[in-house]
Amino acid sequence: MCSVCDKDIKKLRHPKERPLFFLSVILTVVFFFVTLGFSLGGEELVAELKQEQIVEYRLDNPEAEEMTDPQIWQALDQEERELVETLEELDTVYVLIAPIGLILFMFWSFGQGYGHARSNAIHVTERQFPQLYKHWKELADELGMKVTPELYMINGNGQINAYATCVPGYRKYGMVYSDVVTKALNGADPTALRFILGHELGHIRFGHVTLFYAFFRTLSMLPGIAWLIGLPMSRAAEYGCDKVGYKLTGDHDCRGLFMLAAGKHHNLDVNAQEYRCEQVNKGSFWSLIANFGSSHPNVAWRITAIMENRHGPLIFGRIFNKKQ
Ligand SMILES: [Zn+2]
């Protein structure tokens, strides 16, 4: 029975996620056509760039007055020549097949991941860890999924983790580490498990687990651009999925997120009031730095977003807020 309909899903998605993804799509398209343009007829521009660097070298090094252009070019550092030489070597055929190559690479690596799940993890079904499957199916139904994605459980070796992924165009599936499951299946409160499963189903429901999404976010995850677009977009996606997990479970005490912070044995022992005073209300400059380079928001920021029922900050948290 669908209890979280399309309208709810729209509200749960972080408002910055779509604009950042759109920016990433634009960036990819522009990059492709600019590169294609260079490969087709950028000789003049390349020659100009080359000449500019040569003139600059002559101005900085008067003793090079007698040197020829090719000699000066060779005298430049490899790093200084790199951009122009890369542009010179651009081949239209390579530019055209690069996106196809990337898609094939994605098929290969995603397929390999699925093969790993099929071969090394446990496929959770109605007859295999039925209790776990029941939670997964119930949550998928509540999200209005016509087909319940596959779920696998793998030995976590003490790690708390889960993720959702796909075989492009074929199937989407979730993976949960056994340590996330242990306590729930031992008869203790299953809220943390359900929150985490709901979060992963959120990734599937939001469309984060598709070839299209993976393809168009690739460029935005390259060093440099990642800090401005790719990583904030990823953090926005995580906040949205936390909201889905919360909506499905009503995990007011953030048991799921405290499991990430305190582990499976102590997540219920965390003094939420003290945590709120000490780590939520008191900001920290260094937590901002930790968040800046991460694909996931700081756990404290994720907990704040849930506790205060708002969309979490992508870059600037409460760094200077000393309120208690
Ligand atoms: Zn996630």
Number of strands: 4
- Attached small molecules: zinc ion
- Percent range of helical residues: 55-70%
| Total number of domains | 2
- Decide which structural class fits the backbone: alpha+beta
Largest sheet: 4 strands, mixed
What is the terminal separation in angstroms? Answer: 42 Å
Sequence stretches where pLDDT stays below 50 over 5 or more residues: 320-324
Major beta sheet, strand line-up: 1-2-4-3
Walkthrough of the structure:
The chain has helices spanning 6-12, 17-41, 43-60, 69-75, 78-88, 92-120, 130-142, 178-185, 191-205, 211-217, 225-249, 255-262, 272-281, 285-292, 299-307, and strands at 122-124, 150-154, 162-167, 171-177. It has 324 residues and is an alpha+beta fold. The chain folds into 2 domains: 6-30 and 96-307, no CATH class; 42-90. It has a 4-stranded mixed beta sheet, with helices on both faces. Strand 3 and strand 4 (171-177) form a beta hairpin. It is elongated. The site of zinc ion has 4 residues, from helix 9 and helix 11.
Task: Please give a handful of descriptors for the protein shown.
single chain, 324 residues, alpha+beta, 15 helices, 6% strand
Give the SSE map:
Blueprint: H1 6-12, H2 17-41, H3 43-60, H4 69-75, H5 78-88, H6 92-120, E1 122-124, H7 130-142, E2 150-154, E3 162-167, E4 171-177, H8 178-185, H9 191-205, H10 211-217, H11 225-249, H12 255-262, H13 272-281, H14 285-292, H15 299-307
Parallel strand pairs: 2-4
Antiparallel strand pairs: 1-2, 3-4
Helix pairs in contact: 2-3, 2-11, 3-5, 7-9, 8-9, 9-11, 9-12
The structure holds zinc ion.
